[in-house]
Design brief:
It is a single chain. With 200 residues, the protein is mainly α. The longest helix is centred in the middle third of the chain and has 21 residues. It is 51% helix and 6% strand. The protein has two domains: 43 residues, no CATH class; 132 residues, no CATH class. A two-stranded antiparallel ribbon has the order 1-2. The radius of gyration is 19 Å and the shape is elongated. Helix 2 crosses helix 3, helix 5 crosses helix 8 and helix 7 crosses helix 8. The protein starts with a helix and ends with a helix. It contains ten helices and two strands.
């Protein structure tokens, strides 16, 4: 009983009224536990507990997501074909890295949130997206195999975590790996260079 009193956030904060409304759970208690164990492993128990209290007090944001896929064209707007080509190339590279580095997403999330140089607007856009539990669940449970089926919002959030910057650096007609430059939030290990980079 004493442990229950000590752990229950109700005894530390005034719960936000919106959290008490009846609703259909987005995932099971067991899934919630597994997801949050990963959060605690990556960020620590203190971070998790402060975040939990903030949520229970209603201190979270919601709203529209930011620019799709986190791509910032250099100097001029991308046309539709170029944007699609850049997106497809980046998707292929993200799937390749996720398959080769199983902990890449968790490491990138941690790096994103500890990046002091991050633009405040970009940080706020990601925080808005993170306030959507169903979107967070979609991102945290995605795999290289499920990548084509996840939502555009999940793609955008994963791009925000993994890709620090994307640029067009080559002329039209060149292969995608020569046209587009990805600056990763977590640099690739040298041994994980793409086949195109090691040819010749």
């Amino acid at each position: 009983m004493l442990a229950g009193v000590m752990i229950n956030p109700f005894n530390a904060v005034e719960l936000d009224p919106t959290l008490t409304a009846q609703h259909e759970p987005l995932f099971s208690e067991e899934e919630w536990v597994k997801i949050n164990l990963r959060v605690i492993e990556e960020y620590g128990a203190e971070f998790f507990l402060h975040a939990l209290l903030r949520i229970l007090k209603g201190e979270y944001v919601g709203g529209e997501a930011g620019s799709p896929y986190g791509y910032q064209p250099s100097g001029q707007e991308m046309d539709e074909d170029e944007a699609r080509e850049a997106f497809d190339f980046a998707c292929d590279q993200i799937v390749r890295r996720l398959r080769a580095e199983p902990n890449l997403l968790a490491r990138s999330i941690k790096a994103f949130h500890s990046d002091d140089s991050l633009d405040e607007d970009e940080r706020e856009e990601v925080m808005r997206a993170e306030s959507d539990p169903s979107l967070v669940r979609e991102v945290m449970t995605l795999s290289p195999e499920s990548w084509p089926e996840v939502s555009e919002e999940a793609h955008w959030l994963v791009f925000s975590y993994l890709v620090k910057e994307g640029k067009t650096v080559g002329r039209p007609g060149l292969p995608p790996e020569q046209r587009f430059l990805i600056t990763w939030r977590i640099p690739e290990p040298p041994e994980a260079e793409s086949p195109e980079m090691t040819e010749g």
